[in-house]
Amino acid sequence: MMRAPVANLPIAFEEVSVEAGARMILDRVRLTISAGPPTILIGPNGSGKTTLLRTAMGLLPPSRGRLTWGGQETGVPAKRALLFQRPVMLRRSAAANIRYALRSAGIPRNEHNARIEQLLDQVGLDGFGERPARRMSNGEQQRLALARALAREPTVLFLDEPTASLDPAATKAVEEVIRTVAEGGIKIVMSTHDLGEARRLAGDVVLLHRGRVIEHAPVSVFFRAPQTPEASAFLAGELLL
Question: Taking the model in full, what pTM does it have?
Answer without folding.
Answer: 0.93
